[in-house]
Amino acid sequence: MTVRLCRLSVNIDAGDKRLHEFREATFPFSPLWSVTSVSFTTGQSVNELLTVTAYGWLMAEPDPSPPLIFDDLTSAVGYVMLLWGLLEVEMLKKVEGSGHTLLPRAPPIQQWRLASTRSALDVSGWTDEIERAAQIRNMLAHGFVGGSSQPAEGEPFVVCRDIDGERHSLTYDTLRTTAQNIDLLRLRLHRQPDDLLRPREAV
């Protein structure tokens, strides 16, 4: 939407100085016109024209949203991958902060799984959420088949294969929602104590 400061001068009947009628009668786009100040200049008689100068903000109609393109689709995929990486950092922080030895070659989710089985606290809820978040991320990372961003085909999407070989179409909105869910999970996990996964014998 374009917003710009405007100055408009209009001649109307000198006998009618009601600003509301001036706005409605003079500007058919009045809902988009916000008057901040008005000055009046009259002639010698009421029969002469009244010049009204209005200063205010004129907002153009919002531009229609452009169609999503391939760059938007790849950005959504990258957003999922980036936020998953940040979630992995948080998982490793909890594993290490609980006294577990980090395994250099093991993926963070595997290290979380192992530490969670030894945890004194019931973290099964956290593990379930992490596993669900990992599903789409893993399909993108290990089962990517292709994608499309042709307007004629509707919303942009990617096609991925899961571990069973079944293909799934993931739309742009699905990817954005997945990224947001992963980030919310990371923020919630971040608020937990670093020793969330402390072993039973440490209690």
Which key features would you list for this structure?
203 residues, alpha+beta, 3-stranded antiparallel β-sheet, 5 helices, 41% helix, elongated, disordered N terminus
Question: Describe it for me?
Answer:
By secondary structure, this protein is of the alpha+beta class. It is 41% helix and 23% strand. It contains five helices and six strands. The protein has helices at residues 19-26, 70-97, 108-117, 124-142, 172-190, and strands spanning 3-13, 33-41, 49-59, 144-148, 157-161, 167-171. The strands form two sheets. A three-stranded antiparallel beta sheet has the order 1-3-2, with helices on one face. A hairpin with a 5-residue loop joins strand 5 and strand 6 (167-171). Helix 2 (70-97) packs parallel to helix 3, helix 2 packs antiparallel against helix 4 and helix 2 runs parallel beside helix 5 (172-190). The longest helix is centred in the middle third of the chain and has 28 residues, at 70-97. The protein is elongated. The protein starts with a strand and ends in a 13-residue tail after the last helix. The relative contact order is 0.14. Mean pLDDT is 78; it is low at 1-50 and 54-61.
